[in-house]
Amino acid sequence: MISANPTTGMSRPPAPARRWTKTRILGHVLMALWIVSGAWLLYYLAINIASPFVLKYWPEYLSGFFVTLQIVGLSLLIGALLSIPIAAARASKWWFISKPAYCFVYFFRGTPLLAQTFLVYYGAGTFQPQLEAIGLWGMFREAWFCVIFAFSLNTSAYQAEILRGAIQNVSKGQWEGAAALGLSKKITFYKIILPQALIVALRPYGNEIILMLKGSAIAAIVTVFDLFGETRRAYSRSYDFQAYIWAAVIYLFLVEMLRRLWDKIEARLTRHLIR
Amino acid sequence: MDKALTLLSFGPEGWGDEIAWGVVVTVCLAIVTLPFGLFLGFLIALAKKSSEPSLRLAANLYTTLFRGLPELLTLFLVYFGLQIAVQALLKMAGFDFYFEVNSFVAGVIALSFVFSSYASEAFLSAFRGIPEGQYEGGYALGLSRGKTLRLVVLPQLIRLALPALGNSWLVLLKDTSLVSVVGLSDVMRQSGIAARITKEPFMFFGVACLIYLVLAMISSTGLVRIERWSKRGEATR
Questions:
Q1: Residues of A in contact with B53 (CB under 8 A)
Q2: Inside any domain, residue A13
Q3: Is the dihedral of CA B181, B184, B188, B189 positive or negative?
């Protein structure tokens, strides 16, 4: 730190004292509230870390945690695979291909995930004879499978839109430039368009992962014992509110970690774009 | 087909009236939440763009919290937490009776938290789209800070924030279905009851999905109109 100007030897005048304006007071009061509640939460968690509740239920929370990860991971993976043909169909120039894809995407983005899950889980019973005929009834009787099914379709619709938007976002000059270099359409798409599109799609993909992680709590409503399902079970057995507090801490931690990790990945992958 | 129509009719045999009532509840929940969420979101956006670091940090903590928690968990925290808190307060005050939180109220509170944290992001990015000169122009005309904000900045802010706010509204409309889990008789719950009693789950949940789709379509047309209204001052280029 430079305290004096080397040529004149004069020291820098002191910074003007920051006045206690209304906004500053408000900000400090609000921060004090956050700090008090944060400290209280930490204290609450600390005194309960060895409580009978935690000792009794932590294995269940752990298994629920893994079920949640499993549901989210599988759904996102299947959704990603499904999204490619959907996005291609959506961009097709034939209306009899693009219209159904549009309707699929509109339906899954326009209705609540809860309704879709119910539609699959309870609605599958309506088609019991048909499902038995093709041998899939055993799967649709499992809540876990229905949840994966509904979540995959849901996220595939969102991911298809992300993919399509990103590919169309790449400027036309890129196609023209590649064509001028004599590259085939296929090579242009895989080597030039897709890499640029995926960088644009990174952020929306990250948001979709977080959205899916938060949405996966819905699985608990149809009797899947994921993290939230285990939380509900623990609460209904113990009537101890800390069941929900622990779940909130775990979810918040997960989402925040994921967000930070994704920011890191994004910064790493786009480092050539920084000027 | 006949059977389906009977089940969906408005009458003693049909579930049409029950589901229609559910639609009213769903729409009411979303519309009641909207002003709270918008107002809170606007205040948080103001805090986030303030030059005071402590205020910014406090607002950022708020959005981190409510964007990080699953909506369903927020709802359960509010629903059960409020019950326990009020019960404890009543006990301290010396009353001893059972207090039950209304699921509608819990839904409004929880969804307002979630909606406001998303709306604040919409407002914040809209604030970034307004050049500093607009404020300076307002002050140069002798308008106070509040008046500049209200008369000069806000009309432009609405125009810039509308697309993102419209998305948040559609998300809010879908999120209302979660409140059915804590016992609110909205579309989801009513069609669930109908599905259980009539043993026609696919039809009734399908109807519920269609209702949400129709609500989304109506909202989209409404939003297009509002957007056109907000741009009425812009010269056509």
A1: 27
A2: no
A3: positive
Range of the domain at A268: 56-273
**The predicted structure's pLDDT at residue B43:** 94
| C-alpha to C-alpha distance for A244 and A185, rounded to whole angstroms | 53
Residue keyed to tokens 């080597």: A191
Asked whether residue B8 is domain-assigned, the answer is no
Which whole number is the average pLDDT over A124-142?
82
Instruction: Answer whether residue B142 is part of any domain.
Output: yes
CB contact under 8 A, B73 and A123: no
Q: How many domains does chain A have?
A: 1
**Per-residue pLDDT tens digits for B28-57:** 999 999 999 999 999 999 999 988 899 999
Query: pLDDT tier at A257 (50, 70, 90 boundaries)?
Result: very high
Q: Does A29 reside within a domain?
A: no
In a domain, A100, yes or no: yes
The interface predicted TM-score of the complex, written ipTM, equals 0.89
Portion 205-234 of B in contact with A at CB < 8 A: 205-206, 208-209, 212-213, 216-217
Q: What's the pLDDT at A1?
A: 53
Residue A4 belongs to some domain of the structure: no
Nearest by CB: A112 against B47, B57, B174: B174
* Crossing angle of the two packed helices A242-269 and A227-238, in degrees rounded to 10: 170
Specify the CATH number for the domain of residue B106.
1.10.3720.10
**Residue B237 belongs to a domain:** no
Of residues B86, B88, B77, B48, the one with CA closest to residue A41: B77
Whether residue B113 lies inside any domain: the answer is yes
Task: Inspect the interface and report whether the beta carbons of B213 and A106 lie closer than 8 Å.
Answer: yes
- Which of B209, B214, B219, B220 is the best mutation test for A, with the most CBs of A within 10 A? B209
**B8 pLDDT more than 80:** no
Mean pLDDT value across residues A94-114: 93
Find which of B29, B51, B54, B215 to mutate to test the A interface (most A CBs within 10 Å of its CB): B54
Residues facing residue A4 across a β-bridge: A11
Q: What is the CATH number of the domain that holds A132?
A: 1.10.3720.10
Alpha helices by DSSP H, chain A: 22-48, 52-90, 95-110, 113-121, 128-133, 137-140, 143-169, 172-180, 185-187, 194-215, 227-238, 242-269
pTM: predicted TM-score of the whole model, two decimal places = 0.89
